[in-house]
Amino acid sequence: MTPYYVRSFSTRPHILGLIISCIISGAAFPANSQDFNFNVDVLDVNDRKNIDLNQFSRAGFVMPGDYIMSVNINKQQLREQPVSFYAPDNDPKGSDACITPELVEQIGLKPQMKEKLSWWHNGECLVADSLKGTVVKSDLSASTVYLSIPQAYLEYTSDDWDPPSRWDNGIPGLLFDYNVNAQGQRQSKSGDKSYNVSGNGTVGANFDVWRFRADWQSRYNHQSGNESSNKVTWDWSRYYAYRAIARLGAKLTLGENYLNSDIFDSFRFTGVTLATDDGMLPPNLRGYAPEVTGVAKTNAKVIISQQGRVLQQTQVASGPFRIQDINDAVTGKLDVRVEEQDGSVQEFSINTANIPYLTRPGTIRYKIASGRPTDWRHHASGPMFGSGEFSWGINNGWSLYGGGVSDGRYNALALGIGRDLLFLGALSFDATQSRTKLPHSDETYSGGSYRLSYSKRFDDYDNQVTFAGYRFSQKNYMSMSEYLDARITGVRTQNSKEMYTISFNQQFREAGLSAYLNYNHQTYWDRPDNDRYDVTVASYFDLGRLKNLSLSLTAFRNKYNGHTDDGMYLSLSLPIGSDASLSYNGSWGRSDSTNKASYYKRVDEHNNYQVSSGLSHSKALASGYYSHEGNIAQVDANATYQEGEYSSVGLSVQGGATATLKGAALHRTSIIGGTRILLDTDGVADVPVSGYGSTTASNRFGKVVLADVSNYYRNKLSIDLNKLPENAEAIRSVTQATLTEGAIGYRKFEVISGKKAMAVLRLADGSTPPFGATVRNSKNQSVGIVNDGGSVYLSGIKAGETMKVFWDGKEQCELPLPKNLLISEETNLLLPCHLVAVNKK
Predict the structure, then answer these.
(1) E strands of 577-714, at which residues?
(2) Cβ neighbours of residue 811 under 8 Å, at least 6 residues apart?
(3) What is the dihedral of CA 283, 285, 286, 289, to 10 degrees?
(4) Quick check: 677 and 669 in contact, CB under 8 A?
(5) Three-state SS string across 343-362, please?
(6) How far is the C-alpha of 517 from the C-alpha of 523, rounded, in Å?
(7) 265: which DSSP letter?
(8) In the chain, what are the domains?
(9) Segments of the chain scoring below 50 in pLDDT
(10) Residue 212: what pLDDT?
(11) Collapsing DSSP states into helix, strand and coil, what is residue 514?
(12) Distance (Å, rounded) from C-alpha 427 to C-alpha 208?
């Protein structure tokens, strides 16, 4: 029996460097532009007749066959896909990549260029010369086909955006995303305890281009003491399906939806919507997304909802907060509720709006919807309606827009115009006229509403008016949502009169100051005014030996439904090194004040915490906040204690599960129900993968899901080579994907896993495989090249696996590895190579 272990033998592990040096030094001379003949006399090998360098004799030569390879177009990478290599009719010993019609569709050629294409191999493969200047090259070591195509032949692309021909609809799969918040509190004086658990999320399924979704929300409240109670609610708040229609640049939605309009107020309905999607445009042409700002007095939970449906809820630390990751498809009024740990509640509303409605010259954007209004319990609340709106880019400076909505008893028409004022900004004005006849009433309400909007960034003054607007509505003007409420109650409510809104940023760079103002003023014909504004001033400065201090002051006033809440927040922070800081925080309100000192520490890219101590209401206060960005969930925990008043704890867990036929994984997520990508690390566990933010490791099955990837944006994903497990190496460590909204993308990294060791290969007659033969594992990955005397440095060695050795363009023998194979750093293997059956014959 041939032994598997030897103590020592002569090895030359630098085979690749030797071959390259031979070519450079003249050991190889070109026979033509593609062929090379090697002068083997210069090689330091014992048996010069036993050499196989056929695979190196042609630059970029790939043996005919089928491969999984990436495709690069002018340095822009497409997804991995099968690529076949065939010998051309005029060169039987050659090999060219077959660029199929399916692959040509992904290239993004202009329509007029497609008419010039010619084909070979029975019409299956593109003749590269049919597009003058096009070059196709292949690199098997990088598993990549490179296409160099003149830019004039291609549709518009940018560094981070692909044309629709390259969009990926992903693979079929199921998803379950959740956001669960738990809070508990104990009153010091009475001893009463209370706790609540709330959650919201999305259940979904993807099939081909369709995304099927169901949103849920739930809450459980428990109160102990004299008035002990338990309350549980669970609601499926929305059922819907949608898909992208690339050739229209639009999104089709079926089921329960909210009217997403830049002109009319939003309301809930069940029906169909077809709307151009700004997300399909290049990033620099996309629209505006709303943000929510405020100040939390304590560790608090912020709930953002619209007409009863929870859009987002998150726990925030005490102090100013700014939530900017709301979906940019959300428009209309948003209700914000801030639940403090001391039991107090802040409530206010914000009106989201787009920047002035401008459209590119010659382009028409549109939104069409039809259905039946419904309430949050899925019950119809009105008759069938239809709505439509458009925006037409007349020329470089002017845009015309308008629309209408009607259900027979309610009718509204709008018309507006937008103007690009160049260095003065952008301005739009529109007028809406409504005519309403309520059921069981002969009275007709008719009135108008007028809106003026402005946006501008003043680069010379280093400031920006993000959005400023004014709207006036006559007393008898009714929006569709007001009309629907009046149908049910018989009474008009929320009869809007005037609205002012502004968001303004100013930088004073020389002084190290910045200022931010957000203001919203709403008046009504039939109830008190609502006001919401906050001002923040921040400064970064040095004080003697103390460097990079930051000071910020935030003041706010919230006047909502007759209740007024004022407050001020002051923060002074001193960094300690690169990952820690000390700070002072003070807050003052109408009835309370708090002063505390805090210590913040960033443990690593996944963990950070903050501890605080101070006085509130002249009583001792202590609190802590901890955040962990895990592989399977985002976890935030907090605790607060106030002397003689209460103690409380809070926990937030947000994540999801995605399952496909390619694999499944638990994962963290911040955009519920959003786009994601399943990455396959070739069955190797604990491979660190990064996309946005920190890295995430693959699970025990070699799968990892990265959620929150951008729609219609070239997402780049990579393996962190510095954190790879010791016995793993990545053949390909970077990939990318441009996914449609809601897609579950799939990409596979080629990873070799196993031990590494030097070995000598022996055939049955005692000879060795030829110099230059390649060793491949069961996944057909190249794991070694044979050197002089059959020596080879092998990677990816696994006990019980069978490797194969190739030369002369085909498999010649097999290397069965024993099941009890033990390898250490000093192990040298002697491996018998058994001829395959076809060669034995």
Answers:
(1) 580-589, 593-604, 607-616, 619-629, 633-642, 646-660, 663-667, 676-680, 688-690, 696-697, 703-707
(2) 804, 805, 836
(3) 110
(4) no
(5) CCEEEEEEEECCCCCCCCCC
(6) 20
(7) P
(8) 6-20+754-840 (2.60.40.2070), 58-155 (3.10.20.410), 249-287+354-494 (no CATH), 654-752 (2.60.40.2610)
(9) 1-34, 42, 287-289, 353-354, 840-841
(10) 97
(11) strand
(12) 41
CB burial of 597-619 (b: ≥16 within 10 Å; e: otherwise) equals ebebeeeeebebbbebebebeee
Beta-carbon contacts of 125 under 8 Å, excluding residues fewer than 6 positions away, are 86, 96, 98, 99, 100, 119
Between strands 513-524 and 496-508, the pairing is antiparallel
Rounded to an integer, what distance in angstroms lies between the CA atom of residue 717 and that of residue 720? 10
Q: Are strands 546-560 and 563-576 parallel, antiparallel or unpaired?
A: antiparallel
Residue 806 tokens, joined: 């190739």
- Token pair 């919507």: residue: 273
User: What is the DSSP annotation of 527-544?
Assistant: S--EEEEEEEEEEEEEET
Could you tell me if 396 and 362 are in contact, meaning their C-beta atoms sit under 8 angstroms apart? no
Q: How far apart are CA 253 and CA 241, in angstroms?
A: 6
- Count other C-beta atoms under 10 Å from residue 246's C-beta: 17
Nearest to 65 by CA among 86, 82, 92: 86
> How many Cβ atoms from other residues are within 10 Å of residue 553's Cβ?
17
- Please give, one letter per residue, the 3-state secondary structure of 593-609: EEEEEEEEEEEECCEEE
User: Could you give the 3-state DSSP secondary structure of residue 252?
Assistant: strand
The residue among 829, 749, 759, 752 whose CA lies nearest residue 783 is: 752
- Specify the 3-state DSSP secondary structure of 783: strand
CA distance 841 to 543: 86
Strands 834-835 and 810-816 come out as antiparallel
- Cα Rg of the chain, angstroms: 33
| pLDDT given for residue 32 in this prediction | 42
Indicate the pairing of strand 28-30 with strand 36-38: antiparallel
Amino acid at 585: N
Give the full edge-to-edge strand order of the sheet including 688-690. 696-697, 688-690, 715-719, 734-737
Contact 783, 775 (CB under 8 A): yes
pTM confidence score? 0.77
Exposed / middle / buried, residue 44 (Cβ in 10 Å: 0-12, 13-18, 19+): exposed
pLDDT value of residue 668: 92
* Tokens encoding 48: 């010069």
Q: Is 152 helix (H, G, I), strand (E, B) or coil?
A: helix
Which residue in 674, 708, 712 sits closest to 690, CA to CA? 708
Instruction: Give the helix/strand (H/E) hosting 230.
Output: strand 229-245
Q: Which of 456, 550, 576, 542 is nearest to 506 (CA)?
A: 456
How would DSSP label each residue in 439-485?
TT---EEEEEEEEEEEEEEEGGGTEEEEEEEEEEE-TT---HHHHHH
> How far is residue 742's CA from residue 210's CA, in Å, rounded to a whole number?
9
Q: Which amino acid is at 59?
A: A
Which residue in 263, 260, 264 sits closest to 279, CA to CA?
260
- What letter does residue 58 receive in the DSSP assignment? B
Q: What percentage of the chain's residues is helix, strand, coil (to nearest 5)? A: 10, 55, 35
Structure tokens at 830: 């002697």
Alpha helices in 26-133 (DSSP H): 101-107, 111-114
* Sheet strands (E) in 374-425: 385-393, 398-406, 410-420
